Amino acid sequence: MTYDDIRKQFLDYFESHGHKIVPSASLIPNDPTLLFTVAGMVPWKGILQGVEPAFAPRVADVQKCIRAGGKHNDLDEVGYDGRHHTFFEMLGNWSFGDYFKEEAISMSWELLTRVFGLDPNRIVVTTHISDDEATAIWKKITGKDAIRLDKDNWWSAGDTGPCGPCTEMHYDFGSDIPGDLPGSGNEGNRFVEIWNDVFMQYDRDANGVLTPLPKQNVDTGAGLERFASIMQNKQDNYDTDLFMNLIHAIESVTGVKKTDENTPSFKVIADHLRAVGFAIADGVIPSNSDRGYVIRRILRRAMRHGQMLGHRGALLSELYPALIQEMGATYPELAHEQEHVTEIIRNEENAFTDMLQNGMKLLDSELPKINNKTLPGDIAFKLFDTYGFPIDLTQMILRDKGLDVDVAGFEKCMTEQKERSRADTKGTKVLWESQEQLPATDDSAKYMPDTEMQSKVLAILRDGEFVTMAQPGDNVEVALDKTVFYGTQGGQVGDMGELHKDDAIAMTVSETSRANNIVVHKGTLNAPLSVGDIVKPVINLNIRQQTARAHTATHLLQAALRKVLNTDVEQRGSKVSPDSVRFDFSFGRAMTDEEKIAVENLVNEWINADMPVTHEEMDIESARARGAMALFGEKYGDVVKVITAGDVSCELCGGTHIYHTGEILKAKINKEKSISSGIRRITMSVGTLAE
Ligand code: SER
């Protein structure tokens, strides 16, 4: 019986017993206590708790689940046995205040023995130590004595919410396979849990207090992969039809045949393909936090196993069509999101390929130095920080060599780094913001960058402390009463330059930021500097010009996107740096190659037309009357700046700009990708960089 047959027979059985059949819910739960949908009951939590109305008294479904990264975590097990998966499908039938223990048990039994034809003698059942009722029902229906267990027979999805005693059915693969009875902790491959009927009777609050639920519910869950292994008489889930097909696809993408030695890598890749593919199709974006990080870690583990097979570069993105082939008929979202998923996976794979090779080189060079079979925490941290190796990836690699990682040492490095970066960035911003006596910097000259002015040093920050005087070599942050420097804001990065004192360079300014209304000049001193000194702020005009042309180019890019794609395109964020632009905008799909070319051509056409760019100040009403585009959600003052490029673009903008589009020289789109659902990101080079 194939996967498709099992799904169908399961649903048909429950449909014929009055259940409404519903499709799987998303892997992203509507539940802040969980990273993923970890069980079939997750979408129904509200109904089970009695806070949402039930849409039917009896329901059955096949639910996509991921158990990785949270309380329910099977990630480390995958590959090393035949039973664990990060992604799996859970067959379930539900009673929302309808039937309870007797009917649930009798339907489970009938389905297992009559529909699926399993030998009743091979089924072993367990019940909760407190649950005499379920135990008596088993005896009555089957003549079996249930094994009574405690923790194993109590189920809850999260720390709080609906929970209750459960009864589990286990399949006995036979005495020739090593393993002891369920609950022994040593079940081996002989006894495999196949189905869990949970009797949701209680709601658990944050203090662990159990309150009886208004209605008694049934939540059952059966792992489809384990069912398949029994129906196909395989002791390893990965030997069943669906996985064998994925494994063949891995063989053809990597060009490597599965052998006894490399089997774990095949299993890991097959499993991780499903988790990564399904999660991204449901809208997860790999990132550095929460579920995005879990998916990134899983993807990187898969790449490592690809590398162990001698494969380099794109792997899961190449395998995704095989996943659609196997599961796309049941889960249409896989094919529907194919372009999006493939692109996201490919971007991740591109980013990690070289890091993986280089990180492995570092690791290989460190291995001979290892004492006590433990990799020092600072090396694990370097692998993380420089090469993007999640700690569990390093652990996984070392585990294969019988080695360990000093996790405490790693975490210490992590904490130290966090403290450093807090001190580097946020910390100083907070410190500046706490200087309430400091007046706002007069930066009105920022649009006339060659204005010569004499400014007074109002404050100097060094090593987290405000000082009255600092010495050459010190890294400091300086506030002046007035400046020509543009401090980072509105997506445009700040100026670089110098502070001159007595006609000599007193400070090299490498970055300019803003804290409230204070412009903060950051850099290194070349001469002593004291509060009260008079300095001349001088910006690097070259870099200013590169930034200004990038900013005007950003406006042209937005105008071109609205022209080529549609006028719903809206800016959602941007970063304007010297000769480079990152522009985020709302748009529901990937741009085609033709569209990208059309946008780039249009921007270059406008550059070549050398249109005038005007910078005007006006009140907000006049700006609106002019049709100037404003950023949604942005606050503007009464008087605003309007930047107009020929007849193609008119935007409210506080940034610095050029005066003729020809100054941009050239624009080149480098990448267009998704950054979250409905938001795309373009990176573009301009000026000499583009040339
Ligand atoms: N929620 C239970 C489980 O996951 C039964 O569906 O095992």
Question: Can you give a write-up of this model?
Answer:
This protein is α+β, with helices and mostly antiparallel strands and 691 residues long. 36% of the residues lie in helices and 26% in strands. The chain is built from 19 helices and 27 strands. The strands form 6 sheets. Strands 1, 2, 3, 4, 5, 6, 7, 8 and 9 form a 9-stranded mixed β-sheet that branches. Strands 12-15-18-17-16-20 form a 6-stranded antiparallel β-barrel. A hairpin with a 2-residue loop joins strand 16 and strand 17 (504-515). The longest helix has 29 residues, at 338-366. The mean pLDDT is 92. Bound molecules: serine.
Note the topology.
Blueprint: H1 3-16, E1 20-22, H2 45-49, E2 58-66, E3 87-96, H3 101-115, E4 123-128, H4 132-142, E5 147-149, E6 154-156, E7 161-172, E8 191-204, E9 210-223, H5 224-231, H6 241-254, H7 263-281, H8 290-308, H9 316-327, H10 333-336, H11 338-366, E10 374-375, H12 377-387, H13 391-399, E11 404-405, H14 407-424, H15 426-433, E12 455-462, E13 465-467, E14 469-470, E15 475-480, E16 497-501, E17 504-515, E18 518-525, E19 529-530, E20 534-539, H16 541-564, E21 571-577, E22 580-586, H17 593-608, E23 613-619, H18 620-625, E24 639-645, E25 649-652, E26 667-676, E27 679-686, H19 687-690
Helix pairs in contact: 3-4, 6-7, 6-9, 7-8, 7-9, 7-11, 8-11, 8-13, 9-11, 11-12, 12-14, 16-17
This protein binds serine (SER).
